Amino acid sequence: MNKNEFAPTPPMGWNSYDYYDTAVNEEQIKQNAKYMAANLKEFGWEYIVVDIEWYAYDAGSKREQYQYIPFGKVEMDEYSRLLPCPERFPSSVNGKGFRPLADYIHSLGLKFGIHIMRGIPREAAHKHSKILGCDVTANEIANPYNICFWNPDMYGLETEKRGAQEYYNSLFALYSEWGVDFIKCDDICRMDMPSAKKEIKMLHQAIQNCKRPIVLSLSPGPALIEEASYYEGYANMWRITDDFWDDWKYLYQMFERCETWQSHVAKGCYPDCDMLPLGYIGKGFGKERYTSFTKEEQITMMTLWCIFRSPLMLGANLTKLDDWTKKLITNKKVLKLLSDSHKARQIRRTDTQAVWFSSDTKESIGYLAVFNLKESKQNIMIEANDLGLKSFQDLPFEELWSEETSIGTGLSFEAHVYGHGAKLYRIEI
Amino acid sequence: MNKNEFAPTPPMGWNSYDYYDTAVNEEQIKQNAKYMAANLKEFGWEYIVVDIEWYAYDAGSKREQYQYIPFGKVEMDEYSRLLPCPERFPSSVNGKGFRPLADYIHSLGLKFGIHIMRGIPREAAHKHSKILGCDVTANEIANPYNICFWNPDMYGLETEKRGAQEYYNSLFALYSEWGVDFIKCDDICRMDMPSAKKEIKMLHQAIQNCKRPIVLSLSPGPALIEEASYYEGYANMWRITDDFWDDWKYLYQMFERCETWQSHVAKGCYPDCDMLPLGYIGKGFGKERYTSFTKEEQITMMTLWCIFRSPLMLGANLTKLDDWTKKLITNKKVLKLLSDSHKARQIRRTDTQAVWFSSDTKESIGYLAVFNLKESKQNIMIEANDLGLKSFQDLPFEELWSEETSIGTGLSFEAHVYGHGAKLYRIEI
Amino acid sequence: MNKNEFAPTPPMGWNSYDYYDTAVNEEQIKQNAKYMAANLKEFGWEYIVVDIEWYAYDAGSKREQYQYIPFGKVEMDEYSRLLPCPERFPSSVNGKGFRPLADYIHSLGLKFGIHIMRGIPREAAHKHSKILGCDVTANEIANPYNICFWNPDMYGLETEKRGAQEYYNSLFALYSEWGVDFIKCDDICRMDMPSAKKEIKMLHQAIQNCKRPIVLSLSPGPALIEEASYYEGYANMWRITDDFWDDWKYLYQMFERCETWQSHVAKGCYPDCDMLPLGYIGKGFGKERYTSFTKEEQITMMTLWCIFRSPLMLGANLTKLDDWTKKLITNKKVLKLLSDSHKARQIRRTDTQAVWFSSDTKESIGYLAVFNLKESKQNIMIEANDLGLKSFQDLPFEELWSEETSIGTGLSFEAHVYGHGAKLYRIEI
Amino acid sequence: MNKNEFAPTPPMGWNSYDYYDTAVNEEQIKQNAKYMAANLKEFGWEYIVVDIEWYAYDAGSKREQYQYIPFGKVEMDEYSRLLPCPERFPSSVNGKGFRPLADYIHSLGLKFGIHIMRGIPREAAHKHSKILGCDVTANEIANPYNICFWNPDMYGLETEKRGAQEYYNSLFALYSEWGVDFIKCDDICRMDMPSAKKEIKMLHQAIQNCKRPIVLSLSPGPALIEEASYYEGYANMWRITDDFWDDWKYLYQMFERCETWQSHVAKGCYPDCDMLPLGYIGKGFGKERYTSFTKEEQITMMTLWCIFRSPLMLGANLTKLDDWTKKLITNKKVLKLLSDSHKARQIRRTDTQAVWFSSDTKESIGYLAVFNLKESKQNIMIEANDLGLKSFQDLPFEELWSEETSIGTGLSFEAHVYGHGAKLYRIEI
Asked: Between residues 241 and 280 of chain D, which touch chain A (CB distance below 8 Å)?
């Protein structure tokens, strides 16, 4: 199996984290999935991803003190494998795990993903639990010094020990039985523990072994640019930032990150700008809100993610989606960049503006994205020459958010862009 | 209680680590104590210290793989307090803990010390064990991200939470009941976890609370010189190096460390050069040997430790002590520097030599230590002026290792010193 | 010559920098000296120090662009030695250098100091100028990679090359001829260039060679605490901070610095808290102002500097000194701490308060300084026990700023201190 | 002008540094050029590059002390521009500069390159020399704190000041007059001074302004991978290592560097593995020698450089070139990879082996490079699957160094490779 075939274009979907934090339950997942199937699927949205802590009984119950409660009760099988908490995911009882929920998602024509933490549960190590198909026990492959710095659930693996790869194999065998299509593995992408790099490869190997084409997504960022070819070899997407939220300073910083990673976007290989904090978000965090991004900033975000070809994962509670947001995320001509554009390049970046250009893989089309990084409106000039064109004369332009069309003239082109906003032009060349 | 009164001169004793590693048992402790009482006590040696892992059942049993076995079985009471492993310390059965062994040591006229790790047992946190005299449980005060980087037994404390100081208080209440005179607390001196600095103060507070004058020794080093006054405020001794062993390179480095700390030696406050790897050592590490230090190097070590006024802790298996070593550690005139000298200052240090000078607190005596840091013999010149003296003319000199005496002449003095060796002169001034 | 005898108590004086920046001239120096002789000398103030750039013709002339103008014209003799700019110091013409000005200062009963930069003028290196008494030229001992990071005038020395020590010797021979009593050497104390440590020793050696007891002051800080004994060996005072100005945040930070250095104050050895930005300052910087410190903050500063025994160097334009400031700096009982107290120790420091205690060397007097680090008033409790006293019962107290007296009662004492203020008690014990 | 057109394939040439160090002269340049024209030109070798210090009179004369003599005499015009030292480059007299030598090189059908240091001569700044076409002087645009850490000749520019871009423009106007085709700019690629990044763009701008298609090469490395797109925007080649020499450890490290940079090789954009230390080298360094690389290591180097598509710059004294080396650098089928292959990817890298694969841009040809990183011979297995091929069955193989041909069988292929050696297969697919 060639892992690049698992995701021939950047994955598009929904993730429970931005709205529900650690506390999402089965019914909520189903409601969001239902909405997606009915309203978004036709535009390419297809993944439903259950994020962190689905195995924890008390997740979210002490939110003022902890995001991740230490030493809390978790659901685990005899082979050191975490299972969905049955109180939160009732269909998982009697060892059925996520199989029933995955079946439901699949019945809607969608795909099913889950989040995991790198390593093996600390509880399994302290209990000396078994590893499936192997005579070693969890304490023998858990490294007591190899911990995540923000989540207390796991120990990293002793990657060179017998039983370590077997443990990951046993996890993916289970996920394959369940029908999982997408794994977001956390505490691994930044490689801040020495074993993390090796564990990426072990996850890849476990996917190959399980024979199911499971997309592998790595978190959290920033990923290390000097390891670009390593990520490309073993994963489908990797976060190039720490958690992204609805604050202009993070969006501003993303321009530098995309510049850094621009030549590393390829089939099955996607530097990941993180989830889209659109619509209603933040409830599980105790501050439910409509996204703090202005409309212009939302357009900027969508434009950058699409021309760069980041995966798109919605953070909004879909059951509360408003018309404006829905329209924003269902613009077919914009979303087409994900599947049909390539070779996106940053043409220019200063403190106040950024310009990107890419082209269609099938037609003679150029895509020009012009970003205003200032708070106030400005006119931004682009030379045909900067885009490798002789002239703009007589070229048909369409701005894809406003659907306004025009005809180019001369050697340069001026875009009028609102503060923190963007324009995305489709140019026939 | 003024903690500086607990150790008015640098502590002198024996520690189980250098010979037995993690695996010492009650009988071995007793044998070494017996030897000390019979042979060394009269020279000032008095502490018997049981080093790390006395609570672990399997300590030392997988030595080729681990020094500290992760997730191994430990003896612990219902209040999250570690107890001696009864298989290794039979007198500790039925909750008697170290009380019988301490009684025995005291009956020999000696003092009893034990090693502890900063924090609370990981097992207690995962089991939600109780804390004595407090309604919180171990999971509430254990910080899952605050671990030691080389020992897997403990979690550091949530120092700001209710129950944390109470836990340390409960430990020292127990140690006080047992009759412990000396605590060597590990994973704390280097302050490489943010809570460690606070935990030093909490230990001090727990000693004050327990009403027993327990000497507090902090490990491992190097201690932070910029925190000198903090150590001085709360501890009696603090390691200024990482583990010290019988290799010239470590001894050579100690000269720089002593230079750094020279003005911080005071009553009850001792920068600690670590244990003396003399005689037979290394058995528990799988490489029993007679110290690799040459005789000259041993003299250098003893001279530096004594003029600097480091605590002296013997690493040798005392039951196998040879005459040469015994003589080395029972030179009364040399040991007198520990109790009666002060204001030791490094006069000079180059790549090839070091010179120290101090004076007696009671008599008009100067102590001059001359170290040859080269491999080959050299003559080292000292100017009277360098020592704050007008002249050496007519001053009586005694070299304290050889007991040779002479009379000074003129403004300078030349010491003939063997490679890696030292001379220690007592000068009547 | 024992350099510790050059400054048996912390030097007290005035420095041109805080008011005049780089642009002070002879007349201004004389006016400030005259004021000192008439008004402050009797209280112990005695040094008049000409700070940086006295050799530069255009110093201060492009202040909006540069503090130190690169490649500007300087006065230099044929032996690569900088001389006073004759346009600014008219008495220096015809090679007389600072001799006439020093004579004048001495005639007032004061002492004369100047600032120098570590190294040799870049211009001398590029011109291949001579070195006095030596056949090497400046280019041979200037290290083109060894520069100061904030001043463009000099190259550091090739300390191992013949001619380097000779150059420093030639400088101090000249300073000795001029009658210089105090050298503030800059770009050296922080040891941020590899040669700086060696150059400190070379300066010391040059002073010994010149036979004049010139006090050696090292700048800028922070000095390295791990090099404490090195500074003690070769210099009289060393800055423990970067430049200090009239802003509470710097004053607040000084408490930590003094804590760090508290055990390193001794005869002839003074960790230096930097100049006192009192009265009118800042003119050369283009922002002349009356110090921004509140009166309480000024009292805090004076109290800390005095109990810690920092050198005291006034930054104020003395010719504009107001009565309040004059009174602040001429409190005899407070200034007495500089000469007659010792063993100052920080007793306590939290985010909101600090307590120091020291004692008189001659009488049975304790000095207790209580600092309120909060903005608002607070009562601060001190236990007799914390100061090593059994009780405060019946002890006579005098607060040295207010001159209020009282009699102690019981085991504790409460100081009422204004926000950012201090109390300094003299206690007969 | 599109700078990517200046070097449509990786530049191939010769550089004076590896053999002559700083001391090459005109006659030596000509002799090497003559050899290239007669023997190597037909294989694609075309650049003749005069490396560092061509403007210095005394370059190489104090080699035991300095590689770069500080404050030495240099040839400079009135506009702060360095000129060839006429004693070393006689044809440059009377202001003719490198024009006569460039003409000669061009007459041989070759191209001419020179080395420059970032910035402006220190001497110009200290002399306040003029800048062409501008009323500012060198002291105004030289930054006295912005120096190279290994060469003492220059100050970096005040890039934001008027006159800075004008100075670079004046340099390239001169180089264009001379007929320079290639500039290797030093002290810039690693961006270890804050201005260096900006100066790269300024050099690019100066080339655009001068209207001559001058190839821009940046030194020294390692270049910063996170700045990949910046180098791609403004330069033609950038060093991905520090200086490379004939020692296996450097060659071994290059595999990691090439892995890091593999996706950044494109038309006009070449990550640069540095010069090839082949044949006779090292004379100017005082250790003339035949390359210390074994023949196998030389094959490894050439194979890696060619499949990766690094520029190729010969370090050998061409006038002493032996037959073996000549054959090594004139293998047409190997050199064809530089011009006709693309998308080279590292397939595997372990401590002991590395495998790369690329393909021809014009024909259905795959290139497989197999490297043995161990000292002893080994057989290295490659799966067809790893290269994206279904099978090797019936595919014609040619090993390009030995010219041995074979026919593939089955799903895997085994390469027998000598210690530190390589095989390079051309496979018809």
From this structure: 259-260, 262-264
